[in-house]
Design goal:
- By secondary structure, the protein is of the alpha+beta class.
- The chain has 2 domains: about 300 residues, Rossmann fold, CATH 3.40.50; about 70 residues, no CATH class.
- Helix content is about 30%, strand content about 25%.
- α5 packs across α6 and α5 packs across α8.
Amino acid sequence: MLIDFKFSNFLSYKNEARLLMTPVKSFKEHKDTHIILSSKLPILKSSAIYGSNGGGKSNFILAMGFMKGLIHNSFADSLKNDEDRTFTEYHYRLSQGASDQASSFEVSFIHQDIIYRYGFKVKRFEIISEWLYKKAETETPLFTRELSKFNINKNSFSEGAKYVKEVNSNVLFVSHLAQFNSPVSKIVFNWFRGLNVVSGLNEDRYKSATSVLLKSIPGFKAWLSLAVRFLEISNIEADQDGQIITYHNKYDDNNTIIDSVPFALEKEESLGTRKLIYLLGAIYDTLKFQKILFIDELDSKLHPNLTKRLMVFFHKLNQDKAQFVFTAHDAILLDKDLLRRDQIWFVDRNRFGESELYGMSEFDSSVIRNTSDFRKKYLDSVFGAAETINITDELIALMDN
């Protein structure tokens, strides 16, 4: 389970941004349905991130995707030529000194009642520093790294001493060790494997999950068919090529069902139907296998009532350790009946162009209470992060030029 995620000097973020998935103790709303109770500490099941266009919501999701990608790919990418790599200019570009600074990323998570804290700093392709700590009762460093200098805890991290001299300057130590099935490094590596980062605007990154589930888990077909029944879809399956087929009832002149008609999902169903079916696969996978799903633009292409139902569904069916972090624009989700105050976050750019992440929980009771109308306050810009086009006389006059 994710405890927190923080990063700095990445795309529109100059200073550190930190998402906390731990509840505020004084907040009592939805405590029986929206919180995972573990032996270590309580963890929130979900977090929602709101903000104006261009504020930095998508960049927040990209930051987690970048961290996961580097952990999983740095070993293989180290064999590539620099010109063959992608995403090289990822530092904050609106400050003179930022390009000379490293970008930093860190997560804390719980695995089998042990808290791990792992992070690194990277500048272009070089690993500037890296660290891994574990905490059962007290936090213990497993290793720290500054460029090519390593400090290894030989008692708690003996796996590190064996390969330390083989690590290149552009490869994460954890990634290197995971190639040799080193036990502790595999925990970190596999934790990120259970974290999926996707875009709600482009289903290419997660649509295959639905097809794979339809073929591999018999119960998923029945579950998904029932979930999309409101779309007048009577059945759903994946063919031998992995293409998803939906079935709609065919009626005679007396409105009696006489047959079912197959529709190719990618060609004959609406964009919204496609997204929902693919998204339900990703949500099922997250819930069934206790994963973490980061999704940008959750509400795109979906009816507001449907997005609300997905949120209710996730909290109600999540009886284990799955987590869901998403960005959205539709303020209908900013509802005290759907989310706790500590589950709602905002991203806004300051006057220097820097994205800043902050939580609704940071506003005191004179601004927001658990009984307040979250949606109205957000749209009234009480929390910021909701700016839009300013229709001025000058803007109108320039239409005539």
